[in-house]
Design goal:
The protein has 277 residues and is an alpha+beta fold. Among the domains are: 47 residues; 81 residues, Thrombin, subunit H, CATH 2.40.10. Helices cover 35% and strands 30% of the residues. It has 6 helices and 12 strands. It has a 6-stranded antiparallel barrel with strand order 1-2-5-4-3-12. Strand 1 and strand 2 form a beta hairpin. The radius of gyration is 31 Å and the shape is elongated.
Length: 277
Amino acid sequence: MQQIISFILKFKTALVFWGLFAIAIALTINANTHHQNKWVSSTNLLSRSILSVKADVVDYFYLKEENAKLLDENKELREFYLSHQNDSQKNDSLYFENNTGLDSTYQVFNAKVISNSYWKINNFLMVEALEKIDLTTDLGIISPQGIVGIVEDYNAQYARVISVLNPNISINAQLANTKHFGSLVWDGKDPSITNLIDVPRSASVAIGDHVETGGNSLIFPEGIPIGNVISFDLDENRGYYNIQVKLFTDMTNVRNVYIIQMKDKEVIEKLMEGTDE
């Protein structure tokens, strides 16, 4: 208490000045409509700024939760798209009215990349499944932009993925416009470019054409985006194109991904084995 009294006595002149100054400001504002409007405008601006900062802080703390919700919504939409993209007889609005009424050929699971190499010749990713899934080999991994790789090995909820930037895998791919297909193989050079080979010379190819996954695979459904044609050349001796494709997925910065699993894959594989006998 003694310290407070000492402080007041020491700075009494300054305190009296600022007190009178505040009273004068208040009287001026109350007596003048223009000043009142300016004061209200200033305080409103300050309040909005404070509330905006508060909202940003709150949003930051809820960012992880909101991101999880968005991932789930995107997963459901992607699952529906993969299962019904070639079914023109289905009405898409039915899905949103009753999403249990339509069967899905593919299941989609959220996952995240925990490690990734793209500067080597043989590149791999480590992926963690963010929900319960019975992992197996030969599952497709895609990003929101396009293909990423194929599951080679797994343990619990973790999977080792052969990157699309690995010459040891070949992915069935096709030109989106003409449906002429070939094999997608990386040449070990640029991590943003891969090659679509063995496309027949009868195909019509142009710079900018979209390339997507083909229908001759049980790993990726048909129509998953891959990239755009940036150049091509024809091997006159073999009669096939070698097409350079700019990947949609930035393989140097892959974070959130999806695991694609075909529901009846084992049944189809057994039937295919029977046809080979």
